[in-house]
Amino acid sequence: MKHRSLVVISCVLVLCLVSTLGLSCGGGTEGNVIVIGQINDLTGPASSALRWVTVSVDDMVRHINEENPIEGVTLKAIKYDCKYDPARDLTGYEWCKEKGAEIIVAPITGTAQALKPFAEEDKIPVFCSSPNVAVTQPPGWVFCSIPLTGMATKSLLDWVSTQPGYDNRPKLASVAWDDPAQMERVRGAEEYCEDNPDRFDYIGSAIAPAGSFTWSGEIQEIKDCDIIHVACSGPAAATFIAEFRAKGYDARIVSTYEMWAFQKLIEDKVADKEALDGSWAVSPVGWWGDDCELWQQAEDQLCQYHPDEAAEVMAGWGTAYINAWANVILEDILRQTVAETGPENFTGEAFYNVATNWSKTYDGFEQWTYADGKRYCIRHVKMYEYDADLGTLVAVTDDWLPVIED
Known about the structure:
The protein is an alpha/beta fold and 406 residues long. It has two domains: 2-147 and 292-375, Response regulator (Rossmann fold, 3-Layer(aba) Sandwich), CATH 3.40.50.2300; 150-283 and 381-402, Response regulator (Rossmann fold, 3-Layer(aba) Sandwich). Helices cover 42% and strands 19% of the residues. The chain is built from 14 helices and 15 strands. The strands form three sheets. Strands 6, 7, 8, 9, 10, 13, 14 and 15 form an eight-stranded mixed sheet that branches. The longest helix is centred in the N-terminal third of the chain and has 21 residues, at 47-67. It starts with a helix and ends with a strand.
C-alpha cells in the first residue's frame, strides 16, 4: 500500500507541474504527417496487458507532437485490433498500408513473423518487442529491441544452475502453449540442457494447444520437478500456475520477463501471492523501480497521461507500458532519419537505412546497437526475484549479464 500511495502522490505532482508550466505546445509542427501503424491484441485473450503496449506508443506520439516536436513533422498513430488471431495479422497489415503507415509496431511474435516478407517487399519497417529466430533470421525489415526469448531463457538457466541448492542437476521441465514466442523459449531451454547435460535433468516439455486453460495432463507429466520453466504468459501462465499450486506442487517457477507483463492476472488467479514468492525471472530491460532514466521517463509519462491507472499498471501489468523503452529506439531512429532526409523526403526505406547503422547507450544500460547486422539491439540481461510481501520483482543481480547468443 505504501508503494501505491507514493505512485499516486507522484502522479498528482506530475499533473500539478504540467498545469503550472502550462505545457500547451499544440499538436506538433504542421507539415508532413508520418503514420505509425500498430497491430496488436486490443480485445482478445492477451489484451489486458498488450493494450498497454499500444497505449505507450500512442503516448509517445502525443508527447513528441505536444512537447518535443520533430521539426516539420506531425506523427500520427493508428491501431488495428488483431484479437490475438493469426488470421487477422495480414488483414491488419493491409489496413495499416491503406491508412498510409510508413512504420508498423507489431509486439506479438507471430504477427511480426507473418508480416516479415511483406514488409520487406513493401519497404515498411516493423518493430517487434518479442522476437524469435524466424523474425530475426535472415535479417530483414523487422527490428526487435530485446534479444530472442530463447537466448534470454538460456541466460536464465545458466544463472539458475549456479544458485545454492540448484547446482546438483535438479529436475527441470518447460510448460507452454504451441505459440511461436512460447516455443522459442522452450527451444532455448532444450538447447541449453542439451549443451550442458551436467546442469539439469531435463524431464521434457509439456506443450498444450494454444487456447488451453486446463493443465491436468501436463501437470501429471512434470509434477516431480524441482524447477518449472513457465515459457507461457498471460492466461496460459496464470491458469497453469494456479492449477499447479492448487495440486500442492512447490517447484520453483522460473520465466522470462514476458510472463510478468500479466502480473495482476497471475496474482488474481493464484489468489495467494505466496504461491509466487521466490519465482525467478530474467529481463533485458529491467523493472519498475530500477534506478535509470528510461524507467523514470516512462513512469512520469504514465502518471501524466493516465494518473488514475498508473498505480495499477505498474503493480499489475509489468513491462507492458514500458514498451516505452522500445519506443525510445523508434523515436531516436525516426529523428535521425528526418534530420538526414528532411521532413518531406521521409520514407520507410530511409528509416531502414538509418536503423541498420544505429547505436546508442542509455543511462543505466549497456550499448544498444543494430550496426553489427543483428535485428535485436539489446544484448544484456538482469535477474529478478518475486517478493510476495512487496508484490513485485526485485533485482538479484547488480550488473548486466551478457546474454547467451549461441
